[in-house]
């Protein structure tokens, strides 16, 4: 099939001391990174990693020019693989898309066939992208926490960074699965939003004590879903019940973890590392749960759909932590 020229938002190498230059361009299919599958992009998600890359922070992108966007949904328009059928509706996230190869911020994407996953039955292109890498991360956390023994009858689950993409979906997802969810957010205006997603209680982060987190605090949480790290995670670990489970996948609060072994050896606490760049068999299994038992009920409240022209400003807002929920770009 002949692919017509198309619109893409591409980052170019920064000059010394500046951020990458991002601009909309008209490209051809041969301008994209190689791959066996061409996808007509319907929606692409905004993630904190995308915002960091657009600002040139963290050395996330090392080779330019690059089309960002680490998750996308769309329809296959050309395939050189027997494993991926033309016309199939698909989702792609992780595997280096938007970082090591061109990503979703374009009307077309070209990727290796083994990165492509068919949409699970019952999920449309928009909702699948509102979920995207964030929803998969929340679902993967719930999957491994339940695999490790978590159940609603054991008590409350704390979700930190609750207004972010993963946090918002986790509040919705865990509450739909019968858990009593307490959402933690430093944004006073987010209380009604989080209660609307199913949070039974909304907490503000307590000021950090001068002496640091207690090795052990009053046991409250059966589970913790943490996107912050640092002092916030350390304090949450100290307040887990015996045999409590924490799932960690973020470092917005710092990469250091100022805690001790006491929660682990005196209460049997479990700390699970959640890496969303997981192999395809696990992705299919977890996405199957996300489309059924784990399925959030309030994606419309979480979703913010924008036109491509609003992408640069929306990435900047995310970097300033002035956004909440999930923002997706409509390329359809």
From TrEMBL:
TM ranges = none
Q: Which SMART domains does its entry note?
A: PKS_ER
The record's GO molecular-function terms, alphabetically, read: acryloyl-CoA reductase (NADPH) activity
Q: Check the record and name the CDD domains matching this protein.
A: MDR_yhdh_yhfp
* InterPro entries the UniProt entry points to: Acrylyl-CoA_reductase_AcuI, ADH-like_C, ADH-like_N, ER, GroES-like_sf, NAD(P)-bd_dom_sf, Zn-ADH-like_protein
Residues in domain Enoyl reductase (ER)? Answer: 22-329
Reading the lineage from the top rank, the first entry is Bacteria
User: What's the protein name?
Assistant: Zinc-binding dehydrogenase
Q: What species does this protein belong to?
A: Bordetella genomosp. 2
Q: Give the source lineage, highest ranks first.
A: Bacteria, Pseudomonadati, Pseudomonadota, Betaproteobacteria, Burkholderiales
């Amino acid at each position: 099939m002949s692919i017509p020229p198309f619109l893409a938002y591409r980052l170019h190498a920064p000059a010394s001391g500046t951020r990458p230059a991002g601009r909309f361009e008209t490209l051809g299919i041969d301008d994209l990174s190689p791959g066996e599958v061409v996808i007509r992009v319907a929606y692409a998600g905004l993630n904190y990693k995308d915002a960091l890359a657009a600002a040139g922070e963290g050395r996330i992108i090392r080779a330019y020019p690059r089309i960002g966007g680490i998750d996308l949904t769309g329809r296959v328009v050309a395939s050189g693989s027997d494993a991926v059928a033309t016309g199939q509706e698909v989702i792609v996230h992780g595997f280096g898309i938007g970082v090591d190869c061109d990503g979703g911020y374009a009307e077309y994407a070209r990727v290796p066939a083994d990165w492509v996953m068919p949409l699970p039955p019952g999920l449309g292109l928009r909702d699948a992208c509102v979920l995207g890498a964030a929803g998969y991360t929340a679902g993967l956390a719930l999957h491994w926490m339940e695999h490790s023994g978590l159940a609603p009858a054991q008590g409350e689950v704390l979700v930190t960074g609750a207004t972010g993409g993963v946090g918002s979906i986790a509040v919705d997802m865990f509450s739909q699965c019968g858990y009593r969810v307490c959402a933690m957010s430093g944004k006073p205006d987010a209380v009604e939003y989080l209660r609307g997603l199913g949070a039974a209680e909304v907490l503000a982060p307590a000021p950090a004590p001068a002496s640091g987190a207690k090795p052990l605090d009053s046991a409250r949480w059966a589970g913790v879903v943490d996107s912050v790290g640092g002092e916030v995670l350390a304090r949450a670990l100290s307040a887990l019940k015996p045999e409590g489970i924490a799932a960690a996948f973020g470092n917005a609060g710092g990469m250091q973890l100022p805690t001790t072994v006491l929660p682990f050896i005196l209460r049997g606490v479990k700390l699970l590392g959640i890496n969303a760049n997981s192999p395809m068999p696990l992705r299919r299994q977890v996405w199957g749960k996300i489309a059924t038992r784990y399925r959030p009920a309030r994606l419309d409240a979480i979703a913010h759909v924008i036109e491509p022209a609003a992408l640069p400003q929306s990435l900047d807002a995310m970097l300033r932590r002035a956004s909440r929920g999930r923002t997706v770009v409509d390329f359809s």
